[in-house]
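Please go through this chain and its backbone structure tokens and walk me through the local backbone shapes. Keep your notes short.
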Amino acid sequence: MTACKQIVLVGMKSSGKTTVGRLVAHRLGLRFVDMDAEIERLHEEQRGERMAFREIFKRHGGEYFRTLEAAALRGLAEGLVGESYVLATGGGLPLAEENRAVLRGMGAIVFLDVRQDILLERIVARGVPAFFPHPEDPRRSLAEVLDVRRPIYAALADVTVECRAEAPGTVARKVLHQLERWGHEDRRRD
């Protein structure tokens, strides 16, 4: 079992961060923290409106959403000091360098790298997201978004877990295995 007690999951929308994060947290007996829920909580606190994170993005725009997201992340980073947890981030959170700097200080970062064809199927099933540059062409949009995001996720990550169409439990086991290997390699460097 991994010795990591502070784990941050990054990856594209619909990569399974929340589902896998809950499973990893349960298996390790850690608190699970969902960035989307934190954004919703902060928005309600600031604006008095209760709404889903997707609706916040649609109604108030990307700039407001990213500002709120960064504030929620900073609040979590301060509030979680000394705690053990698994954090599932939003797909766009690591795009800002200031957020990457905060994330680096929060724990072991795991990139759930899901194949593009699998992501497309999952994303389209839930409706084309507001941030897709070509809503009429989800395949093209996803390709363009991944071209920007995948290198950012990979550079940020301590561990990359390649995901296909496995069940979430299988991905959670892969995450734990990769973190255990990473922890052993990290200790050998000390």
In short: Residues 14 and 121 are 9 Å apart (CA to CA). The radius of gyration is 16 Å.
